[in-house]
Every structure is written in C-alpha cells, then in structure tokens.
Amino acid sequence: MAYIEWEDSFSVGVEIFDNEHKKLIEIINRLHLALLMKETDAVMGKTLKDLIDYTITHFAHEEENMANQTYPDFFKHKKEHDELIKKVQDYKTQIESGKTTISLSIMNFLKDWLMGHILGTDMKYKDFFAGKKLN
Ligand SMILES: [Fe+2]
Ligand SMILES: [Fe+2]
Predict the structure, then answer these.
(1) Fewer CB in 10 Å around end: N or C, the chain?
(2) How many angstroms is it from 17 CA to the middle of ligand 1?
(3) Looking at residue 129, what is its pLDDT?
(4) Are 34 and 44 contacting, i.e. CB atoms less than 8 angstroms apart?
(5) CB neighbours (10 Å) of residue 17?
(6) What is the pLDDT of residue 30?
(7) What is the DSSP secondary structure assignment for residue 102, as one 8-state letter?
(8) Is 134 inside any structural domain?
(9) Quick check: 54 and 27 in contact, CB under 8 A?
C-alpha cells in the first residue's frame, strides 16, 4: 500500500490540477519507498529535488490561472506557495549539509505539507474555478 493513497475527496474539481496533485503524491510515495528500501543519499536527494522542481512547476501553473481569472485570494495563496517551497528547500539544504537525513518524521512533514495545502488552501478555489476554462 502506498504511503499516500489518492482519494476522490482530494479532488479540487479541476482535472489538470488533480493530475498534478497526483503526480506530487506519487513523488512523495517514491521518496517514502526509497527510505524504506534504504536507498543511497544520492537517490533520496534526487527524489527530493524532483519533488521541489515539480512543486515549483505546479504552483506556477496554479498561480498563472489564478492571475488570469483574477482569483480574489491570489496573493494569500501565492504567499503560502512561497513559504511551502522555502520550507522544503531548507530541509534539502540541511540534508545536503549532513545536519539531518530523510526520516519518517520528515516524510510525515512532507505529507502534511502537501495534503494540508491541497485539502485546506487549494480546495478553496474549487467553486471559483468550476466551469471556467483554464490553461
Ligand atoms: Fe495545488
Ligand atoms: Fe496551491
């Protein structure tokens, strides 16, 4: 069983964003599996980098559509994105400098980091984006 299993209740009602969220979950699951399999630091580091890179891509995609549609909470949402990226980049720096290693507690942090944002903040745009043409 995967570390995070997608559920229909995670849907924000926008297929392109649901698909991107599924991909983020998939990368976190890969990182979790790498931890269980005791993969090398290099493999873990690469997977964490994949997570950061794809998060940046996904956040930019949401922000582009929010800006295009003049989403009322745009700045608040963007601020949360920026803080989330900073947090995980800080972890990566700590890991690279040998101050910490990927552990189950970091995995739990990443799970809460992603799911808290999707279910809390992203979910708020569900009604706003409903029926709108996004790109
Ligand atoms: Fe999102
Ligand atoms: Fe978001």
Answers:
(1) N
(2) 6
(3) 97
(4) yes
(5) 21
(6) 97
(7) -
(8) no
(9) yes
